[in-house]
From TrEMBL:
Endpoints of the signal sequence: 1-23
Name this protein carries in UniProt: Amine dehydrogenase
GO MF term (any one): aliphatic amine dehydrogenase activity
Main location (coarse class): periplasm
Disulphide connectivity of cysteines: C183-C199
Organism: Dechloromonas denitrificans
Length: 386
């Protein structure tokens, strides 16, 4: 009897075990191992936006945000260290960041570098050490420029003495420092190895380099503006050899950088009599943009202007025809501090406000708003379209 009970118990246990095995869910096969890779962006179509954010609350951790301006998509971000200067290469394949790092974030031995990023992957593809003299400035146009053939990178220095650092991008090394006392910003000529700088007395200093990047000549022009009565913004709009500078009082100065020496035209005003009565003036950081094919000049403008309002955000963006010098439109602004425009057949106008919002408008009658791209960084300030 005892044996019979043991046998029954064994059969029951076997049945339970069998039932458990039958009822147990089947485990799926293991997943394949993930392959870590870097996604490639679609080639830039002329509406890719690079937005510089120095992250004022923690400036050792600046960023450049990469956006598709046409669709409003956020494409990526590049960490840029302390107070980076940014410039897309002439062929659009590289993004130059000139920046500073400290081993203890905000202290320690300073290291300055040129970082070269691939614009399709945003991956760092090269780095060049430079002397710790570059201007730790926000990224105004004119702080960084390339030579006509893209070989040399010109970097604005400030120690606070002013000079220009010359980097040979082909050889991958720093090659020279050119002293530019009393002069600021870099206006690269479209021929040879030559650049000009705006001087505090209203003149233009022009430096010519040899094939090794060393200064071989320098010339100073006569004054072309009065820095006491009508100072100019160092942000130029460029058409070939021509530069258009806007003054604090709303005058436009055309400078030609070709031939043996620079040439200058008499300034003309963006304002009419009614505008002057309301004290309309240019303002912001990246104050203007130019659609080159149509010759349409866009300028950030605010009313009730006075001494010291030259960085005020805009109330309107004025569209002006460069050839006729007539205003084409007054566009209500999103209080933009910086403006940019793309150069394609269907150009878009971008206005960047202090709160990290880019308003996108079509360059067409009425300048209709297509979208607002919000939440871009913390303290975004400058844009380049590529």
């Amino acid at each position: 009897m005892q044996k019979k009970k043991k046998l029954i118990a064994l059969l029951v246990l076997a049945g339970l075990a069998s039932g458990m095995a039958i009822g147990e869910p089947r485990r799926p096969p293991p997943l394949p191992e993930e392959e870590i890779k870097v996604e490639r962006l679609a080639p830039a179509d002329g509406n890719r936006l690079y937005v510089v954010d120095p992250a004022f609350g923690h400036m050792v951790d600046g960023r450049t945000h990469v956006l598709d301006g046409k669709s409003g998509r956020f494409l990526g971000m590049i960490g840029t260290g302390f107070g980076s200067l940014m410039l897309p290469s002439k062929d659009g394949r590289s993004l130059y960041q000139v920046t500073t790092y400290y081993p203890r974030l905000s202290r320690g031995q300073r290291t300055d570098v040129v970082e070269i990023h691939d614009t399709q992957t945003l991956v760092l593809k090269g780095e060049i050490d430079i002397p710790p003299r570059r201007a730790q400035s926000i990224s105004y146009r004119g702080m960084l420029a390339t030579s006509a053939d893209g070989r040399f990178l010109y970097i604005q220095n400030a120690t606070p003495a002013t000079s220009v650092g010359i980097v040979d991008l082909v050889a991958g090394k720093f090659v020279a420092e050119v002293q530019t006392p009393g002069c600021w910003s870099i206006q690269a000529w479209q021929q040879g190895y030559r650049f000009s700088a705006i001087c505090g007395d209203g003149t233009l200093l022009t430096v010519t380099l040899d094939e090794a990047g060393q200064a071989k000549s320098r010339e100073r022009s006569a004054p072309f503006f009065d820095p006491d009565k009508d100072p100019i913004f160092i942000h130029p709009e460029i058409v070939g050899d021509e530069r258009y500078f806007v003054s604090y009082n709303g005058n436009v100065y055309k400078v030609g950088l070709a031939g043996e020496t620079p040439h200058f035209e008499a300034p003309w005003s963006l304002l009419d009599q009614a505008d002057r009565k309301r004290n309309w003036r240019p303002g912001g950081l990246q104050i203007s943009a130019l659609h080159r094919a149509s010759g349409t000049f866009f300028v950030n403008m605010h009313d009730k202007g006075a001494e010291g309002t030259h960085k005020n955000p805009s109330k309107e963006i004025w569209a002006v025809d460069l050839q006729s010098r007539k205003r084409l439109a007054r566009i209500a602004s999103n209080q933009s501090i910086s403006v940019a425009v793309s150069q394609g057949a269907e150009p878009l106008l971008y206005g960047l406000s202090h709160d990290g919002k880019v308003q996108v408008r079509r360059v067409a009658p009425g300048y209709p708003v297509l979208r607002d791209i919000a939440g871009i960084g913390e303290t975004p300030m400058f844009m380049e379209v590529n």
